[in-house]
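Sequence, please.
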């Protein structure tokens, strides 16, 4: 007879695969309103997951301090999708079917969120995106759509990227270097449409895989085709490989990027040239004069002692999107007066106004629009060391 190794309850719940772990959950947990998160909590985008947890947790603290929702405290249950769509779907099923969450949030990866969308609509439990920007996540064609978002939307981001490239760099023939997945496909369609609207040609579209370490061949083709600016769409590690490949080529071309580089250790992985990349965001604490931003930053410092200043809040976009999304979800639950998924979905449509961190929301969701943010909420930023700073023009 051998002794079983000691395993902490925390690890058991994180694994979420054992019946005796569930038995260990105290009775009071049933008296909370559970919300979930499926996000990258490990790997090259782990900082994005950490930021989302912080934003959700801060909002939940505020909600619970005022009595919670429906007279109950709100509880957050987190699952790591490891940036893997299949694992994301498994995690979503576990949150809905086993943990009985009344709503759940998504992370940085568009492929993961898109894989969850069919299950979200089938199970009729609201799924709220707080980072992934793939257009079809919310615009998914479902007759009964349970997917909402407080984040950027590729179709709108791509217009902003083109406008910025023209204004900042006088771009006339930009090229595209895109990750070869549904997120890249979403932006390819959006960028081509945005360029067509301005009657602008493109120098070509090059794709690459997440594990590629040499993008010189693709970039050389874009250079030879006359690209005067590059639109880049990829998360942290692949984006870093683009920058390092440009350095090896000695090609000092402007790079206008989606917000993938903000999700992790971009400056560490890309090197000094990381600071040349300009990328879109929905929020920044740095240089932000709003009292709400100051109050939330103070709350973050109090809750997370490792945060000493705005420079330590990277990426701020994950915190801000998640913070506002949690408060909006609490309002939807209150409007519903119930934890029924369909009633909560309809509750999102009934939200009148909310003074959020990113902006003051007025009727943020309708049956025809499940995205709370618009292009007027986007800003362009760059890295200065490890800090993300807003650009003034």
């Amino acid at each position: 007879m051998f002794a079983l190794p000691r395993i902490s309850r925390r690890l058991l719940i994180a694994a979420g695969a054992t019946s005796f772990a569930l038995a260990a959950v105290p009775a009071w947990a049933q008296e909370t309103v559970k919300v979930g998160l499926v996000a990258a909590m490990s790997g090259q985008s782990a900082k994005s997951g950490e930021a989302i947890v912080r934003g959700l947790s801060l909002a939940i603290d505020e909600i619970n301090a005022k009595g919670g929702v429906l007279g109950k405290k709100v509880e957050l249950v987190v699952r790591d999708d490891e940036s893997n769509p299949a694992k994301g779907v498994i995690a979503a099923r576990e949150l809905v079917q086993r943990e009985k969450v009344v709503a759940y949030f998504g992370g940085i990866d568009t492929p993961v969120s898109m894989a969850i969308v069919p299950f979200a609509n089938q199970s009729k439990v609201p799924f709220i995106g707080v980072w992934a920007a793939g257009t079809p996540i919310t615009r998914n064609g479902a007759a009964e759509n349970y997917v909402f978002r407080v984040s950027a939307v590729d179709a709108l981001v791509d217009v902003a990227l083109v406008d910025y490239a023209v204004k900042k760099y006088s771009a006339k023939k930009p090229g595209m270097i895109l990750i070869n997945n549904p997120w890249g496909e979403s932006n390819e369609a959006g960028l081509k449409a945005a360029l067509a609207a301005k009657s602008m040609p493109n120098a070509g579209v090059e794709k690459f895989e997440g594990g590629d370490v040499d993008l010189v061949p693709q970039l050389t083709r874009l250079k030879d085709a006359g690209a005067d600016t590059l639109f880049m769409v990829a998360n942290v590690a692949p984006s870093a490989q683009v920058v390092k490949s440009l350095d090896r080529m000695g090609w000092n071309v402007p790079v206008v990027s989606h917000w993938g580089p903000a999700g992790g250790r971009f400056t560490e992985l890309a090197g000094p040239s990381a600071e040349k990349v300009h990328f879109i965001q929905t929020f920044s604490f740095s240089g932000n004069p709003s009292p709400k931003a100051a109050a939330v930053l103070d709350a973050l410092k109090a809750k997370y002692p490792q945060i000493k200043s705005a420079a330590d809040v990277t990426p701020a976009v994950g915190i801000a999107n998640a913070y506002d999304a949690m408060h909006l979800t609490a309002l939807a639950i209150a409007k519903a007066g119930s934890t029924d998924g369909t009633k909560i979905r309809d509750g999102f449509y009934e939200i009148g106004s909310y003074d959020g961190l990113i902006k003051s929301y007025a009727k943020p969701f309708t049956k025809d629009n499940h995205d709370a943010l618009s292009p007027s909420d986007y800003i362009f930023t760059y890295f200065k060391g490890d800090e993300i700073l807003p650009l003034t023009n």
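Residues 1-29 have pLDDT under 50 and may be disordered.
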